[in-house]
Amino acid sequence: QVQLVESGGGLVQAGGSLRLSCEASGRAFSVATAVMNWFRQAPGKEREFVAAIKWGSAVKNYADPVKGRFTISRDNAKNTVYLQMNSLKPEDTAVYYCNTARGTQAYWGQGTQVTVSS
Description:
The chain is built from no helices and 11 strands. It is an all-beta fold. Strands 2, 4, 5, 6, 9, 10 and 11 form a 7-stranded mixed beta sheet that branches. The protein has a 4-stranded antiparallel beta sheet with strand order 1-3-8-7, with no helix packed on it. The termini are far apart. The mean pLDDT is 95.
C-alpha cells in the first residue's frame, strides 16, 4: 500500500504562486525511485496530466498549458514531491492530485483545491 497526502492548495489571485506538496508513505516506498505525477481536474472536465518526475529527477515532463510556469521537484529525505506553480491563471483552477503506481496498482491522494481568481 502507498499513501499520498497532498497539501498547499488555496485561493490566490491571478499572477500569484502556490506550492503544492505530496507526502508519500508506505512499506518500502520511496519517491526517489518512483515515477511521481501531478494531475488536476476542473469542474465538469476530465482529470488531466500536469507534470511528472522520474529517474532520480533526471526526467521531468509537463503538460503544454503549464510549461514555463510550473516546476515539479522532489525531496527524497522527506519522501515528498512538490509542484511549484507560478504565474497562475484562472484556468488553473482545479483539484490537484498526486499519483504514482507500484506494479499494476495506481495510487491517488485525496486532492487539494486550487482556486485562482481573476
